[in-house]
UniProtKB/TrEMBL annotation:
Pfam families, per the entry: Acetyltransf_1
GO MF entries: acyltransferase activity, transferring groups other than amino-acyl groups
Species whose genome carries this gene: Bianquea renquensis
Superkingdom, taxonomy of origin: Bacteria
CDD domains named in the record: NAT_SF
Boundaries of every N-acetyltransferase domain copy: 9-173
Name of the protein this chain belongs to: GNAT family N-acetyltransferase
Bilayer-spanning residue ranges: none
UniProt-listed PROSITE patterns: GNAT
Length: 173
């Protein structure tokens, strides 16, 4: 996919520092609240932010689970973030979130290209992700970027909440 005219994203590794982790958590709160409230409701958004994207949760993912977080920046402004978990022969794209005012500028495509290059460098054969089945805009974007649905998955995340997802993947040539 070609980058849209003028779109340029800088992909900057996040450090496991108080400042970076706090900034990631703040970005998550802003982006998730805007994007996911209509999809999963405000209570589940608040629960998931608290359990999965709080500063403590992000720090644990980086320290204990091997997640690598990256800021997505444009003209010096943090416009979103992504997180990956390297696997043996494939890469898990855990998160790719872009602020509403910076969507549709080609930043997701640039980020996927960055991840494809990482796959080639490390011998990973595919990128896989989970996406909420009702997140139609993101599903369409992933399909435009070459991802295909491979199966459905419902995961209990506690307190009566579930993640009702499609698993999607993209083979890397």
């Amino acid at each position: 996919m070609r980058r849209k005219e003028g779109a340029k994203v800088e992909i900057v590794p996040a450090r496991n520092s108080k400042e970076d982790v706090q900034r990631l958590s703040e970005l998550a709160k802003t982006i998730w609240t805007e994007h996911y409230t209509d999809i999963i409701g405000p209570e589940q958004v608040a629960y998931m932010l608290r359990t999965l994207q709080s500063s403590a949760a992000i720090e644990g993912q980086m320290t204990e689970e091997g997640y690598q977080y990256y800021f997505l920046r444009s003209d010096g402004v943090d416009v979103g973030y992504t997180a990956i978990e390297p696997g043996e022969d494939r890469l898990f794209l855990s998160k790719i979130y872009i602020d509403k005012s910076f969507r549709h500028k080609g930043f997701a495509a640039e980020t996927i290209q960055f991840l494809e290059n990482a796959c080639r460098k490390n011998g990973w054969k595919k990128i896989w992700l989970t996406v909420n089945r009702h997140n139609t805009g993101s599903i369409a974007a992933y399909e435009r970027l070459g991802f295909v649905k491979t199966r459905e998955q419902v995961s209990d995340i506690g307190e009566g909440y579930v993640m009702d997802d499609f698993i999607m993947e993209k083979k890397v040539q």
